[in-house]
Design a protein that fits this description.
Layout (H helix, E strand, L loop, with lengths): L1 H13 L4 H11 L1 H5 L1 H4 L1 H10 L1 H75 L6 H16 L9 H25 L3 H4 L2 H35 L4 H8 L22
Length: 261
C-alpha cells in the first residue's frame, strides 16, 4: 500500500500543473516522509529512485533542500548561541573581579583615613609641647588637610586622579617624617604615653597601607587582564567595562614610608 501511494505521489509530481496540489495533499498523509526524509527514510528513497528515475530526481531535490535547511538551522543556532553564551560565560566573573577591585580600593581608603586620624591626634599631642616648632606643625596640618580633601571612588580613579591622590599622600608622608625628626629633640614629649602609643599605631597603619595597596594592585591586575582576554573582551566591549588604574610607584617611593623611632 505504501509503495502504491509513493508511486502515485511521484506520478503527480511529474506533472507540472499538479506539483503544488500533490505536495499539499500528500504532506497531510505523509509528513514524516516529506519533512524528515533526509534523516529517517533514505533507504526508501533510494529504492523508489531505482523504480522511477524521473521521480528520483524529485526525491533528491527534496533531500537536498532538507539537508540545506538543517545546515542553515545549525549555523543559525550556533550564531545565536554564541551571541548569548559567550558574553554570559564571562559577565558574572567580570562583575566579581570589578567588585573585588572596589573592595580593595575601599581598604586602601580606610587605611589612609586611619593614618590621617592618627596624625591629627599626634598633632594635638605635640601641641602640648610649648616650644615645638610651629612651622613643622603647620606643614603637617596643611598636608593632612590636602590629603583628606581628595576622596575617590574606584570608578573615579583615572590616571590623573590617581596621580593627584598619590602626590597628596606623599606630601603628608614627608611632613610627618619631618615632624618625627623634630620630635627627637624633645625627650619629654617622646616620654609621654600618648606619644608612644601614637607612634606604635602609626607603624601598624603604615604596614596596613602597604598591604592594602598591594592587594588593590593585585585585584586591578586580575580584572584588567580578564577584560583584555578572549572571550571576556567581547563582553567588556558590549557592556563598556573600563580598565582600572593601579598604584604607580614614584622614584624612591616604591613602598609606603615607615615610621622611624
Amino acid at each position: 500500500m505504501a509503495v502504491w501511494s509513493y508511486t502515485r505521489f511521484f506520478n503527480k509530481l511529474s506533472r507540472g500543473k499538479a506539483f503544488l496540489k500533490a505536495i499539499l495533499s500528500y504532506a497531510l498523509s505523509y509528513p514524516v516522509f516529506i519533512i524528515l526524509s533526509g534523516i529517517s527514510d533514505y533507504g526508501t528513497y533510494k529504492m523508489i529512485a531505482e523504480w522511477n528515475y524521473a521521480s528520483s530526481k524529485n526525491v533528491i531535490f527534496i533531500q537536498t533542500k532538507t539537508k540545506n535547511m538543517k545546515k542553515r538551522f545549525v549555523y543559525l543556532f550556533l550564531i545565536v548561541a554564541s551571541t548569548f553564551l559567550l558574553p554570559s560565560c564571562s559577565y558574572n566573573s567580570i562583575i566579581s573581579n570589578d567588585e573585588a577591585v572596589k573592595k580593595a580600593w575601599a581598604d586602601v581608603e580606610a587605611s589612609y583615613q586611619r593614618r590621617s586620624d592618627l596624625i591629627g591626634n599626634l598633632v594635638e599631642t605635640v601641641k602640648g609641647e610649648a616650644k615645638f616648632e610651629k612651622e613643622t606643625l603647620v606643614a603637617v596640618i596643611d598636608a593632612r588637610s590636602k590629603a583628606t580633601s581628595i576622596q575617590l571612588t574606584a570608578d573615579q580613579i583615572t590616571p590623573e586622579n590617581m596621580a593627584k591622590f598619590q602626590e597628596a599622600q606623599a606630601q603628608l608622608s614627608g611632613a610627618l617624617s619631618r615632624l618625627l625628626v623634630v620630635s627627637e629633640q624633645y625627650p619629654a614629649l617622646k616620654a609621654t604615653q600618648a606619644f608612644s602609643d601614637l607612634m606604635n599605631e602609626l607603624e601598624r597603619t603604615e604596614n596596613r597601607i602597604n598591604i592594602a595597596r598591594r592587594d588593590y594592585n593585585g585585584a586591578v591586575q586580575a580584572y584588567n587582564t580578564q577584560i583584555r582576554s578572549f572571550p571576556a573582551n567581547i563582553t567588556a566591549g558590549i557592556f563598556k567595562f573600563k580598565q582600572h588604574e593601579p598604584f604607580k610607584a614614584d622614584p624612591g617611593t616604591e613602598k609606603a614610608p615607615k615610621v622611624q623611632f
